[in-house]
Design goal:
mainly beta, Immunoglobulin-like, nine-stranded mixed sheet, four-stranded antiparallel sheet, Arrestin_C-like, Ig_E-set, Arrestin-like_C, Arrestin C-terminal-like domain-containing protein
Length: about 425
């Protein structure tokens, strides 16, 4: 199969070998050394064996594979994160994706062993990043000195990944909605300096024993092939939207051929890139709502209230201004106006028993629960009327008297942690404004 694999990436031809009795393929002539140019000459091209090995490992993903089911990724993520103290379960393993034989294997987590051969750590230069920016830091890699009975450890498929996921309490369901992965060699230019020997045919390398310090810079693209960032959320109920940056590497013992995965992660924040010129643009027509209601002891008349918003999107931490039109046909004076911001959180707890087809993940096969909470309020009180002998009076609004109509503008301070989230697999967060 080596010849077929080389031919697949355009590195060689394939020859048919019938000398062994059974037909087989073998590696033919390499194509890489000389390449024809449009002018008829030739130019030298470097051999592609190293990238071939990288390509082979890319077809054998290690963690949180994009093509796997969300349930399997959630199970993997639970094992990788550890418990509430980030401690891994002793001798923890994860299910490796199926290989060429179509069989999946359980692979040990190196950090869950009592005496790990490889230790990893991460230090971030910045823990907050916007899509399109760079996430930078240092990777600390330590290869423990082997004993006389141990073989040298081989490393391969080193990757950096940023993972965003939703999590809900009471069952611990998790859903990965965002992931960006890059080979460590692409993010860390100094990585080859720690190699003791060149990579073998399977892409594994022997790394020098001892501690290593590897700087990295990982770009987070604005357009991502697996989901989009949507910010960070932590609610008192235990509902969270979190992100982690993780370094992982596959390990192989050349004697026993046993494999394991070493990993380490840190929490970070990833936010989407928004264009203020379009996101904060006023709407063509104001967003408005109108209601009428009687007042207690106000007679047979009613109050007509109309509220206008000139924008659909508002930034957390800023003032939200509301234009009000109040028509008071009652016998009472309206002395105050209150704006209340209400957060509505809807949790969708998966119920596999409600799924008609087990092979198809139905997001509506769930149990729904909704909670509402007032997160901010602002009351405008009626000021004093003018008093004889005084040049001014307290307040700036004098209320709405009987049989009169008034327009005014009032504001409410949006909490800095207020964040609207469209429905994902597990949760949805909305904000509504109540005016009374």
């Amino acid at each position: 199969m080596e010849g077929l694999l080389l031919a697949e990436v355009g590195a060689s031809t394939v020859e048919f070998d019938n000398s062994g009795g059974a037909p087989a393929f073998k590696e033919g002539h390499l194509i890489a050394p000389q390449v024809l140019t449009p002018g008829g000459g030739t130019r030298v091209q470097r051999s592609r064996h190293l990238s071939l090995n990288e390509g082979r490992l890319n077809r054998q993903p290690t963690l949180l594979s994009v093509g796997c089911s969300s349930a399997r990724n959630a199970s993997e993520l639970k094992a990788l994160l550890g418990n509430s103290s980030t401690k891994l379960r002793a001798k923890a393993k994860i299910m490796s994706p199926p290989g060429s034989a179509g069989q999946a294997r359980r692979v040990s987590l190196e950090q869950a062993k009592s005496r790990a051969r490889v230790e990893l750590d991460l230090s971030l230069t910045n823990n907050t990043c916007v899509q399109g920016g760079m996430l930078k830091g240092l990777i600390y890699l330590r290869i423990r000195e082997r004993s006389k009975k141990e073989a040298s450890i081989l490393l391969g498929d080193a990757k950096l990944r940023v993972v965003g996921f939703e999590a809900i309490p009471n069952g611990g369901a998790r859903y990965v909605f965002y992931q960006h992965t890059t080979p460590l060699e692409a993010a860390a230019a100094t990585l080859p300096s720690i190699y003791a020997l060149p990579a073998d045919s399977q892409g594994y390398v022997e790394v020098k024993e001892g501690p290593h310090r590897i700087p990295f810079a990982m770009e987070l693209p604005i357009e991502n092939s697996f989901g989009s960032a949507k910010g960070v959320l932590t609610l008192p109920s235990g509902v969270v939207v979190r992100y982690i940056v993780m370094v992982s590497v596959r390990l192989r013992d050349p004697r026993s051929a046993k494999q394991s995965i070493a990993h380490f992660y840190r929490q970070c924040e990833i936010w989407p890139r928004l264009d203020p010129s379009s996101t904060l643009l006023p709407t063509l027509r104001p967003i408005q709502n109108t209601t009428t209601a009687p007042l207690f002891m106000g007679g047979a008349g009613r109050v007509k209230l109309t509220a206008y918003l000139h924008r659909l999107h508002w930034v957390a931490g800023q003032r939200c201004y509301v234009t009000l039109s109040i028509c008071n046909d009652t016998k009472k004076t309206i002395r105050s106006v209150t704006l209340t911001l209400i957060r509505t959180v809807t949790v969708f707890k998966p119920k596999p028993a409600l799924n008609a087809d087990p092979r198809d993940e139905d997001p509506d096969a769930c149990q729904t629960s909704t909670s509402r909470k007032e997160v901010a309020a602002s009351t405008l009180e009626m000021g004093q009327k003018s008093i004889r002998g005084h040049a001014s009076a307290k307040g700036w609004w004098t209320g709405v008297g009987p049989d009169s109509e008034v327009q005014l503008q009032h504001h409410i301070q949006i909490p800095p942690d207020a964040l609207t989230m469209m429905r994902g697999r597990l949760l949805e967060v909305e904000y509504t404004l109540r005016i009374s």
